[in-house]
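> call design_seq(struct)
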């Protein structure tokens, strides 16, 4: 009730923050005259001075005004660009660990230099995060002269980079790279077998460009390093033949069946479900083709993998459409990012869905993979000591940024007032009428000489628009996932008078549309241009620029609303950059996906009440509000999904931290003898307790079982029964001490044979390998647990609490298994002295073999549906259910661990 009054009296929180920062801006400006008077060498020497002051205890906050003034002056001298006052506010926002929302064309890349330079002075490193490799290299090379002028080193991390080059990039003061590469390097570091193999140092400070894209749009997709698993391509092909025989089950709202079928589709949650008839039909068909034994159920424990394949095939056919969710390129299924319209080569869907789509498209089916290591961007970026970001659209997601990451959003005032006109939506009854209206709008703009950008949500729509324009004889350029290699060229000239560009979602394109075109690109296309040629190109551009301004600037036309208001705002933001003229208009129809699924009934009733005829459009604020309300619903649902995914992954993340800490401790230690001694003691205690219950009578002891267990775990035959017969005073505690003494003596004998140094090296290698193998299997088990945990809801149990409880039990078992398996291998294996050169060659060959088997996936998390009530299924799987990638051993062959036992009696039991 009092909020509006208080806001009027004291201003919004954002306004108060801007006022606070303006005081610091005045301090920065006060240093400007002093900085101008310095020579280049004196200005450069300021960096060393700042570092010395930090070493003496001065804080970065205290240095900020002077450091910003130095960076501003360096920008003027090196790049001919002076930071505006509002850009200084943006730099302070980044330094304070907040998100700076800045409109298109306000110079986010230049703003980043302020916070980056200040924080790089600490010597702990700064990571600048971009959405693709092109932008990482471009921004690093663009800003490198400024940083190097100030004595800072700059590195860029890219995929397939030589290890030494990548290590040097991470050691630089400022490192540029993509979110994917930073995440993968973190996982790689935690698979390394020596400290020298690691790339990253402490995760100190990160500035994320297009922060909404990375921390929100990409939040629900995991980063996975995987190894190849067994081939099941024939199964996908067989099931693919069955899916087209299934029919859709349709019901009226009142529940009356209008078409009895085998499956239902929920477009809101992007889920497809088999009904009872569908299950029976599929079971009959699978039995007929020999994939299911006569009389068996799909729900039998050993057939659940088959059920997963069936659902993967069903989703591939009914939820994933060519040229919308994916394209086929060079014989491969390439996913399309729904938020940006970009293709994502190398990224694969999990849970067998990608293979099912390959089968649907009659392509070569690539082998499935097993997860070796995984994390999510949510958990990776929360590892940084300080996190900040920049984007043109963050305010609509401010609640999520604060809830998940603890990040506040600061809306930075524009340097020039916004002059763009955003018109109300035009809503038509049919898509055909909508497209006709768009064509008419385009024609009108063409006659005025205005450049037009038509934004579409899918490749299919962009190609349909292109076909319609071809029929009208209107010249245009198409920018979608199929032609993104021409992206820079198309965008560079999209602001010329009368230019028409059709583009799928423009988020993350990283290039501004300059009114009149981009004269710098024209100059760059010439070989050795003369000053006269450059002057002429500039003059021609100035005329075109003025012509476009006078005609009304860039017109943005959107062919439909996106599920997220943020994506719509990004498209709008392409017009009216830096105070330029421009306008935007959204054209909708009741046949659009968003309208049909979320908002059609209310709007349709409103249109009927007005008595609208075919071809007429409605333009009313009430309709726009209804659509935005529908978008807010979708955004809220997606937030709940991401939050739920995070709650599940937080459990995995705590376990990941423990395992990675244990691994790093092992790597850093020169001698892990104490760790091995602790393992030996714990395994012995557990083994003795299992056969000699505490406070039990000797008659209750399983001595024969204890002898066999010690032989199995420690490789030592001990005559325990004989000891007991010979010594009446040998009780539980004294027996433990005697056993431990014997085991230590046996191990010391092994050390004498192999040499202490060789055994120490071998111990570390064995424990690391055992830890990695068991962690890999644990990830698989956790995936299976996550898939089925929703069923606990039917027993009136909370699935999240059950997941936490069971995962804790599994993790405790994992830690016990690491100790037991490490001791078992070390006790049974024969160690020989190895020539140092032989050892180095062997380790290198093993590392190369492992690298060859690895696949790096930024996996899609399919089926991200609405969080549902207790008892309803919620698929929160983050990764493909993995399959072991080791060479298959026969059950009666000797086990690979060297125990001398048959595989079925040794590690075969564990697996």
């Amino acid at each position: 009730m009092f909020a509006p009054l208080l806001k009027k009296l004291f201003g919004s929180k954002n306004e108060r923050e801007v006022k606070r920062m303006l005081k610091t801006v005045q301090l920065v400006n006060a240093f400007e005259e002093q900085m101008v008077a310095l020579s280049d060498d004196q200005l450069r020497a300021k960096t060393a001075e700042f570092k010395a002051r930090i070493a003496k205890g001065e804080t970065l906050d205290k240095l900020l005004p002077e450091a910003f003034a130095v960076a501003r002056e360096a920008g003027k001298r090196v790049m001919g660009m002076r930071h505006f006052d509002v850009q200084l506010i943006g730099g302070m926002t980044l330094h304070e660990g907040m998100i700076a929302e800045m409109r298109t064309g306000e110079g986010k890349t230049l703003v980043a230099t302020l916070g980056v330079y200040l924080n790089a002075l600490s010597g702990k490193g700064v990571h600048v995060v971009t959405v693709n490799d092109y932008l990482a290299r471009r921004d690093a090379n663009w800003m490198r002269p400024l940083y190097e002028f100030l004595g800072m080193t700059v590195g860029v991390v890219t995929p397939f980079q030589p290890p030494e080059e990548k290590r040097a990039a991470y050691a630089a003061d400022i490192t540029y790279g993509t979110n994917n590469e930073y995440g993968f390097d973190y996982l790689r570091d935690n698979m390394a077998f020596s400290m020298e193999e690691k790339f990253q140092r402490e995760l100190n400070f990160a500035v994320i460009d297009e922060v909404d894209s990375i921390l929100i749009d990409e939040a629900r997709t995991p980063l996975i390093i995987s190894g190849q698993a067994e081939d099941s391509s024939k199964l996908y092909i067989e099931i693919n033949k069955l899916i087209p025989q299934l029919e859709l089950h349709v019901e009226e709202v009142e529940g009356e069946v209008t078409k009895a079928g085998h499956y239902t589709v929920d477009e809101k949650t992007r889920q497809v479900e088999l009904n009872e008839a569908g299950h029976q039909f599929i079971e009959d068909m699978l039995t007929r083709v020999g994939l299911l034994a006569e009389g068996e159920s799909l729900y039998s424990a050993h057939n659940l993998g088959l059920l997963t394949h069936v659902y993967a095939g069903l989703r591939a056919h009914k939820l994933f459409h060519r040229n919308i969710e994916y394209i086929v390129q060079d014989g491969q299924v390439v996913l399309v990012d729904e938020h940006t319209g970009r293709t994502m080569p190398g990224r694969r869907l999990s849970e067998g869905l990608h293979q099912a789509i390959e089968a649907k498209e009659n392509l070569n089916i690539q082998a499935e993979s097993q997860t070796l290591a995984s994390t999510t961007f949510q958990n990776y970026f929360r590892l940084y000591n300080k996190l900040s970001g920049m984007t043109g659209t963050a305010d609509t997601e401010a609640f999520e940024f604060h809830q998940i990451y603890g990040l506040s959003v600061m809306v930075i005032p524009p340097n020039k007032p916004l002059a763009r006109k955003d018109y109300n939506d035009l809503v038509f009854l049919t898509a055909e009428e909508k497209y006709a209206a768009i064509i008419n709008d385009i024609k009108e703009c063409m006659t005025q000489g205005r450049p037009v950008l038509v934004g579409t949500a899918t490749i299919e729509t962009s190609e349909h628009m292109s076909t319609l324009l071809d029929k009208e004889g209107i010249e245009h350029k198409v920018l979608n996932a199929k032609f993104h290699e021409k992206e820079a060229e198309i965008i560079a000239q999209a602001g010329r008078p009368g230019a028409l560009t059709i583009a799928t979602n423009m988020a993350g394109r990283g290039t501004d549309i300059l009114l009149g075109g981009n004269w710098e690109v024209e100059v760059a296309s010439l070989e050795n241009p003369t000053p006269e040629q450059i002057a002429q190109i500039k003059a021609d551009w100035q005329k075109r620029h003025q012509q476009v301004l006078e005609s009304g600037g860039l017109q943005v036309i959107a062919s439909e609303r996106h599920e997220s208001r943020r994506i719509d705002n990004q498209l709008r933001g392409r017009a009216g950059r830096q105070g330029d003229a421009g306008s935007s208009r959204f054209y909708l129809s009741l046949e659009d996906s968003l309208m049909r699924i979320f908002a059609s009934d209310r709007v349709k009733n409103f249109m009927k009440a007005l008595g609208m005829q075919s071809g007429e459009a409605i333009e009313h604020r009430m309709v726009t509000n209804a659509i935005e309300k529908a978008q807010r619903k979708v955004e809220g649902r997606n937030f709940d999904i991401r939050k739920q995914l995070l709650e599940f992954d937080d459990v995995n993340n705590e376990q990941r931290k423990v395992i990675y800490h244990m691994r790093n401790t092992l790597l850093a230690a020169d001698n892990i003898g104490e760790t091995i001694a602790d393992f030996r003691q714990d395994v012995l205690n557990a083994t003795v307790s299992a056969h000699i219950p505490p406070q039990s009578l000797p008659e209750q002891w399983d001595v024969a079982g204890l002898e066999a267990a010690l032989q199995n775990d420690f490789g030592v035959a001990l005559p325990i029964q004989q000891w007991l017969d010979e010594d009446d005073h040998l009780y539980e505690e004294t027996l433990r001490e005697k056993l431990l003494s014997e085991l230590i003596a046996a191990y010391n004998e092994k050390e004498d044979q192999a040499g202490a140094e060789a055994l120490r090296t071998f111990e570390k290698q064995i424990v690391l390998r055992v830890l990695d193998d068991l962690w890999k299997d644990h990830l698989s088990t956790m995936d299976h647990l996550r898939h089925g945990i929703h069923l606990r809801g039917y027993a009136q149990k909370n699935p999240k609490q059950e997941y936490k409880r069971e995962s804790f039990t599994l993790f405790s078992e994992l830690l016990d298994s690491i100790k037991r398996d490490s001791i078992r291998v070390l006790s049974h294996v024969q160690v020989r002295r190895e020539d140092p050169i032989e050892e180095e060659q062997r380790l290198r060959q093993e590392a190369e073999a492992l690298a060859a088997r690895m696949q790096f996936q930024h996996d899609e998390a399919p089926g991200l549906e609405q969080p549902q009530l207790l008892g309803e299924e919620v698929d929160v799987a983050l990764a493909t259910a993995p399959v072991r990638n080791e060479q298959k051993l026969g059950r009666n062959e000797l086990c690979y661990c060297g125990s001398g036992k048959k595989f079925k009696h040794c590690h075969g039991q564990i697996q």
